[in-house]
Amino acid sequence: MPSHPLSVHRAAAVQGTLLAFALLAFALSGLALSPSALPAQRAAAAPARSAVDTTALERLTFRAIGPANMMGRATDVEGVAGNSDLVYVGTAAGGVWKTTNGGTTWAPLFEKERTLSIGDMALEPGNPNVIYVGTGEGNTRNSASFGRGMYKSTDGGNSWRFIGLGDTRHIARVMVSPADPKTVFACAVGHMAGPSAERGVFVSRDGGTTWSKTLFVDDRHGCADMDVDPKNPNIVYAVMWHFDRKQWTFTSGSEDGGIFKSVDGGATWKKLAGGLPKLLGRVGVKVAPSSPNIVYAVAEAREGYVWRSDDFGETWRATSHDAATLCRGFYYADLRVDPVNPDRVYAIACQLSLSIDGGRNFRPISMSVHGDHHGLWIDPTDPRHIWQVNDGGIAESRDHGETWNFPNRFALAQFYQLHADNREPFYFVGGGLQDNGNWLGPSRTRDPLGILVDDWNLVSYGDGYYQVSHPDDPDYIITDSQGGMIFRTQMRTREQEDISPQPRRNDGAPVRELQYRFNWNAPIIASPHDGKTIYFGSQVLFRSRDFGATWAAISPDLTKNDTTRHGWAGGPVIQGRDDRRVLQHDLQRRRVAGAEGTHLGRRRRRQLAADA
């Protein structure tokens, strides 16, 4: 296939996306170094710094350099019954996109609002020009972006109006009543960390002008999912979920949460208990459209993962213990039911799984699709036609998910980190992408068409983070991935080697069995004095003087090393811990924090910086 330059329209979209990620990365690094994160240093007055002269920067403008062929995490997809050409896609950090030709081209719709993070969307039944968007990812993972409440468009996404719930931050589901287009439901997760009052189920009876909170357990329980009976919209199901996400720990589950039901259009609610476990974590709930007495749930529960009710949720039974239907429950816990066949159920998790026997047995149908699935839309007029979204973008099927097409034709890459090398005449820019590896491409080319798709190259796989290039050979690159994996790649020959200091991979084994404990996006930097000297952080600080060929730990364990947290941590359903201690280590004198060093507080650092 021939290469194509970035179109003007696409370039504008990429500019906005790259700018958003650059600002996000800057904000995160600022958090790591903010005064509130350094209480031990507050008393010491910092020397005054001269103001930066920005005159030379005033005429600079952003330009798109790519990569245009890389997608990223999409969170929701909504189609229009009977119109296979019109589809809307919500993304984790790239706004809302629309196609009017079945995915051949896409247009960005949500570029001027206060957030680019989309949790869920809903179209007014019978009028797809009316769109409701709940902002902020509904998933509570540590790298999710928060939003700014609810937005509405009445012209197909050309313009938007903020309609409230600005402090919800994360919205998992938005629904419009099939009987009354003025009745809108918002399922608000709320703040990820700590208590918040603006969470639960909110109902608007006037198209989003005003909202009433009708289901609220307490300021620690958020709404994880909801669904409306399509034949009797007065029946509404909602899930309340207790969780707490902090940088160093995550807790999920309680006996006060679970599945709730309303029979008066969301005005009042009762908790469903018949056959369900008392202790529940995150739950996804869906009504079978053709037989709404059948309701399915996928749940974080020891007693079973997939549950079914045949009497409108009054009694339940576990139908499957297949772990693939839940995977990481706090992140997924979602499903869909075929609009015609109530026994055809899709479980949305690390992989997309299908059951054709009412939820008893599942098989994967997404082996050719990027993993980590977040949304799925089934055409009610042709259930063979499916759109789904995942960490790699978009996929479409015309045969119940047996085969897939990938209309990924807009830039959606999420960069964790950026890196620029020192080659001439045009330096290269690279970085790590969320679940799409490390990539590298030129800042300019001599091609009259500009930077092309083929100019960008994949360096290494996984969740990409940091890049370091050799000072004498910019094609010799070190990259890292999740859990402390490091690769050294020679781009000219494509030779690649694993240079991780960890003797055993972080493959899900108990932490106590691992010699070194790495953060999800463990930082790696090169010395500003000698680019072949590399530093890498786990619970100890590693140094390599030969560009990663060998490593030496130059510090003892800098964490609290609380071994009681290395095995099963207890807690209601799941609980994990990242040690919060952050310490300053003098690399020359080797003074270790605690006894001789300086304790820098209890915020987790995503970055290291060497003193120049």
| Biggest pleated-sheet summary | 6 strands, antiparallel
Shape: globular
The unreliable regions are: 1-46, 568-606, 608-612
Percentage of residues in helical conformation: under 10%
Find the structural class using helix and strand composition: mainly beta
Distance between the termini: 46 Å
Strand percent estimate: 25-35%
Radius of gyration: 25 Å
| Count of distinct strands | 43
* Number of distinct helices: 1
Rounded average pLDDT: 85
Topology (SSEs and partners):
Layout: H1 8-32, E1 74-80, E2 83-91, E3 96-99, E4 107-108, E5 118-124, E6 127-135, E7 150-153, E8 161-164, E9 171-176, E10 184-188, E11 200-204, E12 212-215, E13 221-228, E14 236-245, E15 249-252, E16 258-262, E17 270-271, E18 283-287, E19 295-299, E20 306-309, E21 317-320, E22 334-337, E23 345-348, E24 352-355, E25 363-364, E26 373-378, E27 386-390, E28 393-397, E29 415-420, E30 428-433, E31 437-442, E32 457-460, E33 467-469, E34 476-481, E35 485-490, E36 495-498, E37 524-526, E38 534-537, E39 541-544, E40 552-553, E41 574-577, E42 583-584, E43 598-599
Antiparallel strand pairs: 1-2, 2-3, 3-4, 5-6, 6-7, 7-8, 9-10, 10-11, 11-12, 13-14, 14-15, 14-16, 15-41, 16-17, 18-19, 19-20, 20-21, 22-23, 23-24, 24-25, 26-27, 27-28, 29-30, 30-31, 31-32, 33-34, 34-35, 35-36, 37-38, 38-39, 39-40, 42-43
